[in-house]
Write a structure and sequence with these properties.
- This protein is of the alpha+beta class and about 650 residues long.
- The chain folds into 3 domains: about 140 residues, Immunoglobulins (Immunoglobulin-like); about 325 residues, Alpha-Beta Barrel (TIM Barrel), CATH 3.20.20.80; about 100 residues, Golgi alpha-mannosidase II (Immunoglobulin-like), CATH 2.60.40.
- An 8-stranded parallel beta barrel has the order 11-14-17-20-21-22-23-24, surrounded by 6 helices.
- Strand 3 and strand 4 form a beta hairpin.
Length: about 650
């Protein structure tokens, strides 16, 4: 560090657009330790050193710039402060680190800039956005913006207690949201809401519905809106489409102050090929593998990170910590984990390169994911990391010291696929596919699972959840209530994409909002009430969430009634005083005297029924109290005789009398 007092500058605006401003070569934020850790792959807060930092040194205000481009011949800062001149403000190399740096006097918050990179190879030149930019222009513009992250947070109470909200024994009902299409403004050309406009409206909806967390599809900067954020160019910058970094902080802060957790989608599996982005950054394949058999994704036509390169590890791991440090995220959901784990993912024979042992496992990506989870939980033990992993890779959500990948939770894609396939069948055929319901319990506790009914299931011609259901309109709504109830009754945390709580008819379109006006119609309003009731029950009954990830929390009663497409099971919590019995009828047939075995005598109470009139059902319910008789069935000493409604799920509760 140069001698003299250095402080971060937060307020100065850009100087004259044409005046050549001096570059001070002696000022640096980088220490030898920073460079060592960066080159080792162990620098996890690079955002404090690389990028653009407004500071004041000995009374001189300006911005310190630093960028990694080891194979560049020259790197210059070009921007609105120098008329986008590509040569007037060259940076200097920082020893042999591959980093170029410089302090430009008079440049402050709000200045637009890019790096003009001139490579040593084949005359390659390009204007690049800053990989460590914390703010960028609204797409399709691509300049980075000098900015700061000063914000006064008001969520201290949430942060201090969030272990209670994020633990595996806590209720976790996640509302998945695409911010750009959650609610648009018809009177203003159907524009998206800003972060600050979203804060009270989204919070009110989530609170009213009873969800515990929201999960945002990627908020990181991305050039193409239609990618939903999954083609990231700004790994340290929230998209400016909805406001400034402080505006996103305000949204998260507002949710936290109202008791709602926030998960962010994070995409280390690939990045787009746009010239202003990370690809071919200094005229070489700096961030990505050079060989397209390892470095190019055939499905997404995007680049794949070189996970074995130490500096790339530092870049990605710093991005991870950044969103936890600066935006107070409660967890990161990692997209496309399967594509990272397998070298032959979506590739034909001969189109991939085996690892050093001849296998198809990506050893470098495996090591990176383990390191990622270790660093997250070391720094933030009260958050969760979540893997979207679609294969049977073992021990995804088990600790790294046991040989696992170290994630806290994993999406249960198998449950989602089997259940939606089963529910899409005509009830008359369901008896031939009973194992689609029961198979999950063979592996349900191999991982810590989230049951996802996500955005991926309601796009690209797949139809909405309601649209997948068979039968006439009444049966479609009954089937949807049954599907949602079945999800909430199963072991595992819950995730539901926006629109499902309305009974959305059309599949999701990122260019339009869900049909909020449907709530004016009774059947859709009834679905809304049902989701609210499920969240309320799930949160209030420890039996339904405390042992979501432990075998002790679940017992089958009967899996053998395939002929009538009925299943029954029990959920238990840490206390054995309360037991909840769940019975599901996947046909439109009413069973007026259906007998179910139970482990306990005395009275049982119906606590939720998807067929009651309030939720749009046919009002086939049970008395306030049902007595369990000493009659053995299903291997249980007692039995209940219940009314089992059509296409319905019914919850019954037994409470042990205290002596």
């Amino acid at each position: 560090m140069a001698e003299g007092k250095v402080r971060r500058k937060s307020g100065a605006g850009p100087e004259s657009k044409q005046r050549k401003l001096p570059v001070s070569p002696e000022i640096t934020l980088l220490t030898e330790d920073d460079i060592y850790l960066f080159n080792e792959g162990s620098h996890f807060r690079l955002y404090e050193k690389l990028g653009a930092h407004p500071i004041t040194v000995n009374g001189q205000s300006g911005t310190y710039f630093a960028v990694w481009a080891p194979d560049a011949r020259q790197v210059s800062v070009t921007g609105d402060f120098n008329g986008w001149d590509k040569s007037s403000h060259p940076l200097r190399p920082k020893g042999q680190s591959g980093i170029w740096e410089g302090f430009l006097q008079g440049i402050g918050k709000g200045a637009l800039y890019k790096y003009h990179v001139a490579s040593r190879y084949k005359g390659y030149r390009a204007d690049k956005s800053d990989p460590f930019a914390i703010y960028n222009e609204i797409a399709p513009k691509t300049a980075s913006i000098v900015w700061d992250l000063e914000y006064t947070w008001g969520d201290r109470e949430w942060i201090e207690k969030r272990r209670e909200h994020n633990g595996l024994d806590a209720p976790m009902s996640i509302y998945e949201v695409h911010l750009g299409s959650w609610k648009r403004v018809p009177d203003e050309g159907y524009r998206s809401l800003s972060y600050r406009e979203l804060a009270p409206q989204l919070t009110e909806h989530v609170q009213r519905m009873g969800f515990t967390h929201v999960e945002f599809l990627p908020v990181m900067e991305h050039p193409f809106f239609g990618s939903w954020g999954y083609q990231v160019t700004g790994y340290f910058a929230p998209t400016s489409r909805y406001g400034s970094p402080q505006d996103l902080m305000y949204l998260i802060d507002y949710l936290h102050q109202h008791g709602i957790g926030v998960f962010l989608d994070w995409v280390p599996s690939h990045f787009p090929t746009d010239e202003h982005g990370l690809g071919f950054f200094d005229g070489t394949h700096l961030y990505e593998h050079a060989n397209p058999q390892k470095g190019f994704h055939p499905d997404w036509t995007s680049y794949i990170f070189n996970y074995g390169r130490a500096e790339v590890q530092s870049f990605l791991l710093s991005s991870t910590i950044f969103w936890l440090d600066k935006y107070h995220a409660d967890g990161l959901r990692v997209d496309g984990v399967a594509s990272m784990l397998y070298l032959d993912y979506s590739r034909k024979e001969g189109d991939w390169i085996p690892n050093k042992y001849g296998g198809r496992e990506n050893l470098e990506a495996i090591a990176f994911l383990r390191k990622f989870n270790e660093e997250v939980y070391k720094n933030y033990p009260d958050v969760q990391t979540v893997a979207e992993e679609s294969t049977a890779w073992p021990m995804v959500s088990r600790p790294t010291y046991l040989g696992g990948l170290g994630f806290g939770l994993k999406w249960d894609m198998g449950w989602m696929h089997d259940t939606l396939l089963y529910m899409s069948r005509d009830p008359i055929h369901r008896k031939f596919h009973h194992n689609d319901l029961t198979f999950r319990m063979l592996y349900a506790f191999n991982e810590n699972f989230i049951l996802p009914l996500s955005h991926d299931e309601v796009v690209h011609g797949k139809g909405s959840l309601l649209g997948k259901m068979p039968g006439d309109d009444w049966q479609k709504f009954a089937n949807l209530r049954l599907l949602l109830g079945y999800m909430y009754s199963q072991p595992g945390k819950k995730l539901l994409f926006m629109g499902a709580e309305l009974g959305q008819w059309q599949e999701w379109d990122h260019d339009r909002s869900p049909d909020w006006h449907f709530l004016e119609y009774e059947r859709h309003s009834d679905i809304n009430k049902w989701v609210k009731a499920l969240n309320q029950l799930y949160r209030s009954e420890p039996t339904l969430h405390e042992l979501d990830c432990e075998p002790a929390g679940f017992e089958w009663i009967d899996t053998s009634d395939a002929l009538q497409s009925v299943i029954s099971f029990i959920r238990k919590g840490k206390s054995t005083d309360d037991i909840v019995l769940i019975v599901c009828n996947f046909t439109p047939t009413i069973h007026s005297k259906y007998t179910v075995g139970v482990p306990r005598g005395g009275f049982w109470r119906e606590i939720l029924n998807s067929d009651v009139a309030e939720y749009g059902g046919s009002s086939q319910d049970n008395p306030a109290r049902l007595r369990a008789y000493k009659k053995s069935i299903h291997g249980r000493p007692y039995s209940l005789e219940i009314t089992l409604p059509p296409l319905a799920i019914v919850f019954f509760k037994s409470r042990r009398r205290k002596k």
